Amino acid sequence: MLEKSDHYILAAVAISFALSGYLWFSGQQAEGVFTAIWVPSILCFGMYIKISGLVRRGK
Fold first, then answer.
1. What is the per-residue pLDDT for 59?
2. Does the predicted model carry a pTM greater than 0.90?
3. CA distances (Å), origin 6, targets 15, 27, 30, 32, 45
């Protein structure tokens, strides 16, 4: 099940993706690519937080 923290991570990913698309199509390709790199980074951070929480709880 998704927890409250999962929704925040997914919202950050969606915002980053949308901002990246906006920057790319508004003519700022370098900034759009830089912002697009945030998407997998945010997802990896979210997975790290989720897994470390499971390990601490002993599941």
1. 65
2. no
3. 14, 32, 29, 25, 11
